[in-house]
Amino acid sequence: MSNTVIVYHSGYGHTQRMAEAIADGAGGALYAIDSDGNLSDDGWTALDAADAIIFGSPTYMGGPSWQFKKFADTSSKAWFTNKWQDKVFGGFTNSASLNGDKLNTLEYFVLLAGQHGGLWVSLGIKPANVKASKRDDANRMGSYIAPMTQSDADAAPSEMSAGDLETARLYGARVAGVAQRFASAQVA
């Protein structure tokens, strides 16, 4: 199994539930960005040693939270020394609205991964977009870049769609699998 690290900020617990589902699928380690936008020293060490890094943030006002952006700015220390060069990357987001401009958050993650010289892993799950589709189907949001989920603004994290969480779990497994194949190819 690859060494996968999920680094995320969660404002109300929904993004944390997604992170937990992704970690379950990837067999990965979770590191939360705190409410002041800081990551522990152990988190930075884990990111430097990871084969795969998966970013997570809620989408607020059309982009990632300011706490995640602070983390991203601080990651320039790793950028200066190419610490994350050729790592496998992924990301995920949640918002209250069906659209909620979540695509902007995912594109922010793709760009951040690119700045670090990383390799992005797409979702790889066809959308649930036929009349028979239900709220708890995988990829009900129809994303291709990475998982995006929707949680009603007045819903508790425990009320999240089972399909959204399964989408996250499957994505975690996909990112970890790609990282494992990539690591094996480098050894060969």
Give the distance, in angstroms, between the N- and C-terminal Cα atoms: 16 Å
What is the general shape? globular
* Average pLDDT for all residues: 94
> What multimeric state do the chains show?
single chain
Class by alpha and beta content: alpha/beta
Q: How helix-rich are the residues, as a percent range?
A: 40-55%
Rg (CA only): 15 Å
> How would a textbook summarize the main sheet?
7 strands, mixed
What proportion of the residues form beta strands (DSSP E)?
A: 15-25%
Topology, number of strands: 7
**Separate helix tally:** 6
Order of helices and strands: EHEHEEHHEHEEH
Which parts are unreliable, with pLDDT below 50 for 5 consecutive residues or more? none
Keywords: Flavoprotein, FMN
GO molecular function, one term: electron transfer activity
Pfam families: FMN_red
Cofactor: FMN
Tell me what you see in this structure:
The protein has 188 residues and is α/β, with parallel strands linked by helices. The protein is built from 6 helices and 7 strands; from the N terminus they run E-H-E-H-E-E-H-H-E-H-E-E-H. Strands 1, 2, 3, 4, 5, 6 and 7 form a 7-stranded mixed beta sheet that branches.
Could you outline the blueprint of secondary structure elements for this entry?
Elements: E1 4-8, H1 14-26, E2 29-32, H2 41-49, E3 52-60, E4 63-64, H3 66-74, H4 76-80, E5 88-95, H5 102-115, E6 119-120, E7 148-150, H6 162-187
Parallel strand pairs: 1-2, 1-3, 3-5, 5-6, 5-7
Antiparallel strand pairs: 3-4
Helix pairs in contact: 1-6
Keywords: Flavoprotein, FMN
InterPro entries: Flavodoxin/NO_synth, Flavodoxin_CS, Flavoprotein-like_sf, FMN_Rdtase-like_dom
Pfam families: FMN_red
